[in-house]
Design goal:
The chain has helices at residues 10-20, 26-44, 81-90, 137-149, 165-174, 202-207; strands at residues 3-6, 50-56, 61-67, 71-77, 99-103, 110-115, 125-129, 132-133, 156-164, 179-186, 188-189, 195-196. The chain is built from six helices and twelve strands. By secondary structure, the chain is α/β, with parallel strands linked by helices. The relative contact order is 0.17. Helix content is 33%, strand content 30%. Belongs to the UPRTase family. Its cofactor is Mg(2+). It holds the Pfam family UPRTase. This is uracil phosphoribosyltransferase.
Length: 212
Amino acid sequence: MAGIHKISHPIVNSELSKLRLSSTSPKEFREGINHIALILGLEASKDLEEETFDGQTPIAAFKGTVIKPRVGLTPILRAGLGMTDALLTLFPSAPVYHLGLYREKITLQPVEYYSKLPAQPPVDMVYLLDPLIATGGTAIAALTMIVDWGIPADKIKLLCVLASQEGLKNVQSGFPGLEIWVAGIDEMLTKEGLISPGLGDTGDRLFNTMRP
């Protein structure tokens, strides 16, 4: 279902509050991102189409179900890696297509430096993993790459831990058919394009590369 879906859950709220704290260790930060990503993935998957099959238990025959669409995971490097394991828990056979994008510090524009998308998409839908949406530029660049690859916007689910109001508006205006699943929304952006109060640089906090 297209639109912005904000998760309302006490565990998500508690985990997000812990992520915001500057005193949270890299280990705790990684665990928090993983926990929130798992809940986001579950919530975003409630409407996946199923198909049935006939099976046999040790006791009797039964009618089971499997997920019908072939799902691919697309984390945006490097912060998106923090969400990948959680989604692989839900979709253990899903291919993972890494996209390398960074935001140029002066212009705040996204710069592509890596893409693992094959020539033709062997999947029916994609979960795009990006923990933070500040201005929305990086997410829009990644979405453009995926749509140009051959996956329509209504077959993409964007999962993010925290987003700004402005960033969500920018992404939604560019891709109105997109599903966006978010754990928290902040209203403010700093003049440097950072979410405020936010939670800092997700990549640095995930991988313990914060500068003193």
